[in-house]
Amino acid sequence: MSVNKEIIPKTNLFNTGSPGFTSEMLRNSKPVTALKGDTIIYRGDVSEEIYFVKSGELEIIAEDDKTVVAILSEGAYFGEVGVLLDMKRTMTVRALTNCILNQIKKDTFFKIVEKYPDQFRLLRKVRDITGIYR
Question: Once rounded to an integer, what is the mean pLDDT over residues 25-53?
Answer without folding.
Answer: 93
